[in-house]
Structures are given as structure tokens and as C-alpha cells.
Amino acid sequence: MVKEKNPSDEMKQSLMNRYGETLIRKLTRQDLAEFQTYLKGQYDPGKGWNHKNRLKFESKLRQYFHEEVIRREISGIEAVLKLLTPEDLKN
To answer: What distance in Å separates the CA atoms of residue 35 and residue 12, rounded to the nearest whole number?
Structure first.
């Protein structure tokens, strides 16, 4: 019997392959938690968008990526950061 692959698992693996060298191998558990906190706190249904969290998120990303990469690939980077767990990291 062939096990069906979960589409989100496939997406996660694809993103991990893409950003593995520049992000996942260098990312610490503390930084991952910080990134995920910023991403979760970007929007509050009662208050709307929290631009300060977005600025903190982008500032932290600059420790890992050049500005051009952030502008070009922000959605992929956000997606992989949302899907990662501490167990996925090398550090």
C-alpha cells in the first residue's frame, strides 16, 4: 500500500530544500521562535495590522538574507518560517 503524501509536507520539504543552506542551517531555535512570534502578531482581527511587528520581522530577516532576496522571496521565506518546527533546525 502506498502512503499518500500530505500537500503541506511536500510544500514544507520543497521550501526547506530551497532555503536550507541560507536559513535552516543557520537559524537558531530562539530566532525561529522570534520569527514565528512576529508573523503571528502581524495581524489582529480586532486591531488590524501591526506594522511594528512587520518591521521587526524584516529587520531580523536581514541577519540571514540580503535586501534583494527579501524583496524577491518574502512570501516563500514567510511560508517556510511558519511551517518549521525546532526539530527541523540544524542548530
So the answer is: 16
Q: What's the whole-model pTM score? A: 0.79
Residues 6+ apart with CB under 8 A from 43: 49, 50
Q: What is the pLDDT of residues 61-90, one digit of tens each?
A: 999 999 999 999 999 999 989 988 898 887
The CA distance from 3 to 44, in Å, is 38
Give the containing element (helix H, strand E) for 44: strand 43-44
pLDDT of residue 36: 95
In whole angstroms, what is the distance from residue 2 CA to residue 77 CA?
31
Residue by residue, DSSP assigns 45-86 as TTTEE-HHHHHHHHHHHTTTS-HHHHHHHHHHHHHHHHH--G
